[in-house]
Every structure is written in C-alpha cells, then in structure tokens.
Design brief:
Length: about 170
C-alpha cells in the first residue's frame, strides 16, 4: 500500500488555523466526519482519548494524532500544515506545524499498524518534512507527500517508479 492510499488530494490542507491542540483535534475530527459520513463527536472523542494516553507530537514540529474507529474499513488520513505552530505537548517540547490525522479501522490486523508506521517513517524524513513546509498550496502539499525524488513511497519504506517491480516497473531503490 502506498502512503498516498491514505490521503486524497482534497484532504491535504495548508494554512489551517488553530489555537491549541484540543481545538485542532476537534476541527480535524469535524472535517474527517464530513468526509466519512460519521459523527464528529465520536471521532473527536476517540482522538482525544488516544491523546490522553500520551501526546502524538512525535518531535520535529510534527504530530500524528490517530485513533481506531470501528466503522472504518480502511485507513483514512488528512495532512495539515498549520498557519502557525501550536503547542502539542510534543516529546521534544517544540510547537507543531505539520499534522497527519490518521483514522484506522478497529480490526486487529497488521494493516492499520503498518499505516501508522509508514506515516511516522515518512514524517521522520527531514527532506520530506521540508518539502511539506515549502509547499505553496494544498495541491503542492499533496504532491510533496506523494513523491520522494520522483518515486512513489510505499508503507514498507520501499519506493517504486510507476508500477511495482513485479508488474514490470523498476524495483525498490
């Protein structure tokens, strides 16, 4: 599964305004709820419950708020670049300006965990994060997420050009 499978272009947003973590999570829950046709309060409650276990601010001004939602059949993501960084109780104490909201099915399969690991891996890449910060608009933000040096990133960390190697494309680099 490619990391782009988690994100539609319409769910990559720049210059989102937020004053604090809770307000941001509630706003993102409302946006996700509208896209998924689910109750916003249920999504917000799941995200805030997960956040109460420990901050999803991973350091480097990045956060990956996530939760399991029973009604989901596949992972859902939103990529947000905030207009101004906010305190997110991140592990390094730095304010956050890049947020990837990830909603996962409640199933116990490895797929949802690999989705979270893939997002985290990608957001630990300083070049990727820099491209996200430099994106001039939402379309460019999505493109910055979708491409790594011309290659499509996959959740396993491998890259391929066009088609996977087993379908005649160039294999992992």
């Amino acid at each position: 599964m490619a990391t782009t499978d988690l994100l539609l272009p319409a769910h990559a947003l720049i210059n989102v305004r937020a004053t604090d973590k809770t307000t941001l999570i509630q706003d993102l829950a409302a946006r996700a709820a509208a896209a998924l046709d689910l109750p916003a309060d249920r999504i917000s409650a799941a995200l805030l419950k997960r956040e109460s276990l420990g901050s999803t601010g991973t350091g480097g001004a990045v956060a990956i708020p996530h939760a399991r939602i029973p009604e989901l059949k596949k992972p859902f993501g939103m990529l947000i670049r905030l207009q101004n960084a906010i305190d997110f109780d991140a592990i390094d104490g730095k304010p956050v300006d890049i947020v990837f909201l990830l909603l996962l099915p409640a199933s116990s399969q490895d797929g949802p965990l690999s989705a979270l690991a893939g997002v985290a891996r990608k957001l630990r890449d300083p070049e990727c994060v820099q491209r996200l910060r430099l994106a001039a608009d939402s379309g460019k933000l999505y493109n910055a997420w979708a491409c790594e040096g011309g290659a499509v990133a996959t959740l396993t960390g491998r890259r391929h050009f066009g088609r996977p190697a087993d379908e005649g494309g160039v294999g992992p680099s």
